[in-house]
Amino acid sequence: MTKRIVKEKTPKEEIDKFWAKKFNITSFLFDKQLAFVEDPEPFKVAVCSRRAGKTIACAAHLLSEAISNKDITCLYITLSRNNAKKLVWKELKKIIQEKKLPATIDETELAISFPNSSTIYISGAKDSSEIEKFRGLSIKLCYIDECQSFREYIKDLIDDVISPALIDTAGSLILIGTPGPIPTGYFHECAVKSENWSKHSWTFWDNPHIATKSNRTHQDLLDRELKRRGVVVTDPSIQREWFGKWVLDSDALLLHWDQNKNDFDILPQRKYYYILGIDIGFKDSDALAVLAYSDDDPVTYLVEEMVTAKQGITELVQQIQQLEKKYDISKMVMDMGGLGKKIGEEIIKRHQIPVEAADKIRKMENYGFLDDALRTGRFKAKANSRFTQDSYLVEVDKDKSRPDKIAVSNRYHSDIIDAVLYAFKCSNAFYYTAPKPAPPKPGSKEWADLQQHSMFEAELAGMIAEQELNERLWGKG
User: Fold this and answer.
1) Of 455, 283, 470, 288, nearest to 387 (Cα)?
2) Residue pLDDT, tens place only, 6-18
3) How large is the average pLDDT for residues 150-155?
4) Which CATH number do you get for residue 51?
5) Looking at 209, 225, 240, which one is the last position of a domain?
6) How many angstroms separate the Cα of 243 from the Cα of each of 47, 48, 192, 238?
7) What does the pLDDT look like over 219-276, one tens digit per residue?
């Protein structure tokens, strides 16, 4: 009689070890990425250029940590849930599929769980109200990506929420991103000035996969971009995006708020008219901006703003009514496109609030008028305002912009700037034209200088005309 051999089942721990060993992170990362991931320091910061491969590093590290450790939580945070899906979620699923990893993918919750009870969560935190959802978690590894696009609430996110969540597991926190257009802010402080973060950097030039995929050298690709943009390699945008360097790149910004020109403490004593700009959010927040202007002053002031996520029409109406009573608002303008049209009609009919449709024609051109008002000091907003913070973050998309049309980058979305723009279009600062200077008094030094300059211009014009006539008659030379 043949004896039947019964093979014992492999213990769950052995299965977990098998998958941890099978997933070899070194097969995904090149040297600088690997040095970054394997750095044992609990607090790390990485500054990269575009196309450096930072998303792959994030994804591979999250998977490696979750597979190699039992019953832990790994967390990836970026500005919005939608950005997280576009960035790391796709890469995570791709690696899982290629390596046939034993994972359960939850598309609704953006969560990936493993047989060893470890989980990776993907999320967004676009404002301070969203950081509360991370409280109570016990985290082994946390990535905060695109750090350059976070406003100052990132400090509260780290100090008050994430850092305490790392205590139980002695976990790690990693900040990663590209240099912002203004070398300032929390990410810049951690990446450049602070001694409490282990610092790493790699760029497009270190990524060996670029040449393989494009069948072009790195230099060829850069030369092509320089030619397309009509700039040289020292251009600040090129230095930031291709070399990962912190340089002042104010030309990359859509708006240019300047503390010396645009900050104010209190309104000057005048009679003011108040306009309310309203931008309705569907996935984004509702934003309300109150602007003040007077007949005898070319300056328009942003005096109050409200930005609220996930509120209903009732709450929105209450905010409008509150501001209307406070400022005696003479005009309200709202984005009536898409969902805003239905909300606007309900606000008008049910609540008798006289909102008007905002003028969105030539919107990009109107951004230019708003920026011109900032540059000339005809628009003012307080330094701690949401508008001011966002003016440091909203960039021009140079890849999509043309000489006749400016495109806004989707790296950071501002809720308040459009609300301000709609109201600004109705203020006197939008239509303001500088008065022509009075002519100098005859006999004055200014008058004499002007006369001499005019005589010189007339003489020069005569010489040019005579030269052109000779060339037509006798030819050049």
Assistant:
1) 288
2) 444 455 566 556 5
3) 93
4) 3.40.50.300
5) 209
6) 10, 8, 16, 7
7) 999 999 999 889 999 999 999 999 999 999 999 999 999 999 999 999 999 999 999 9
Q: Kindly report the CA angle at 124 between 76 and 115, in degrees rounded to 5?
A: 40
Look over the chain and give the mean of its residue pLDDT values, rounded to a whole number: 88
**Cβ atoms of residues 448 and 455 within 8 Å:** no
Host domain of residue 124: 12-209
First-to-last C-alpha distance (Å) of the chain: 117
Residue showing tokens 């007949």: 295
> From its phi and psi, is residue 230 left (phi > 0), alpha (psi between -120 and 50) or beta?
left
Pair (276, 423) in one structural domain: yes
The token pair at 178 is 């590209």
CATH code, 334: 3.30.420.240
Rounded Cα–Cα distance for residues 185 and 305 (Å):
22
Which pLDDT value is given to residue 6?
44
413 and 286 in a common domain: yes
Boundary residue ending a domain (396, 411, 431): 431
Closest by Cα among 202, 88, 86, 85 to 141: 88
Number of domains in the chain: 2
pTM score, whole prediction:
0.79
Taking CA 286 as the corner, what is the angle to CA 284 and CA 289, rounded to the nearest 5 degrees? 130
Please give the structure tokens belonging to residue 469. 């006539």
| Residue type, position 354, single letter | P
Judge whether 323 lies within some domain. Answer: yes
In tens, the pLDDT along 35-94 reads 999 999 999 999 999 999 999 999 999 999 999 999 999 999 999 999 999 989 999 999
Q: What is the pLDDT of residue 430?
A: 75
